[in-house]
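During the practical work, I selected for study one protein's amino acid sequence and its backbone structure tokens, as given directly below:
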Amino acid sequence: MDFSGDFPALAPKERQIRYAGHADSAIYSLYAADLAKLYDAELQRRGLGGVVLAYRSGIGNNVNFAKSLFDEVIERGDCVVVCLDVSKFFDNISHAILKANLIGLLGGSKLPKDWLKIFIRLSNYEYVTKEDLGPVVGKIRKRHICDVETFRTKVRPLIKKHGADHGIPQGTPLSGLFANISMLGLDEHAHRVMTDLGGSYRRYSDDIALVFPDAAQVASAMDGITQALLEHHLAINEKKTCTSHVQQVGTMQTVTGDDLQYLGFTYDGRRILVRPGSMTNFYAQMKRGIRQYIKGAKKKGVAADAIRKRVPIGRFTHWGDDRNFVQYVYKASEIMKSPEMKRQLRRHVPIFDRQWAKMMTKYYGV
């Protein structure tokens, strides 16, 4: 794949993130720490410790989880893998199911008073959008968006209330844990169905992967899981459903049907690679980031020979810190024992240098 030209913007996965205020966030974090222990214990009791993957600490990350799926596929030889995406997962979580499961975890016949207040705050939450805040407080540059008086007189009237019987905010310290708790019954049901078929079930937030030993099992099992999702007021995003048929041919495997993709990685029967869309996104971000950086320096009056190139180098090359995309791919390459991943990025430095030179010429004439 040629990454030397311009890159189209990929359609972003729309997520309405709702961040909690500082005080609320601290309270939610405290309650989440205690609840997570109860939830993990319940997962172990139900035999779901290796099934629910997201929003849990100490069990690995998406690289490990994708490797686990691909390792299973490689070991099985012949199988069918169905990857599903739950449509608008957080927006459609049932308050009734979440509350019932939460009561079950905490014990008793109803929520304790403190937990009831927490539940109400997250189910019937209040929020202000950035779009509404803009005309009132201007561009948000700091953690504290305004003073107390501005909040009382100008921001408070903008507050909206979520009045539906479903949906929780995505972005608070309790959001992921609450989402997992709401899925306890479904996870147990789907895991049992797939285990009985000799297959497997795993869920990373709204991304579900099902492995079937036999293609003949797929239709009826999918009908049952689809129905279980509907009973949880959730639905499958049909546009993102991928069905991959894996067949062992000698010492190699072939993958037909849809590409086998999971958590940002692909497996074609021979190699594990970074998803092409992620690569396209990275190079588009690199070009855009360099352009904005140099344009901003010019606007601030920074001389051409005074621009600190190390800042974008840190963001977009292997010389950067452990959190950038290149270092992430390099680590994934080692974990998955896939040197081909590093080769996907073999031209990232020349592409960086060309974009840097192009933008310096455009904005500084050098």
About this structure: The beta strands are 79-85, 126-127, 160-161, 200-204, 207-212, 242-249, 252-257, 260-262, 265-267, 272-274. The mean pLDDT is 90.
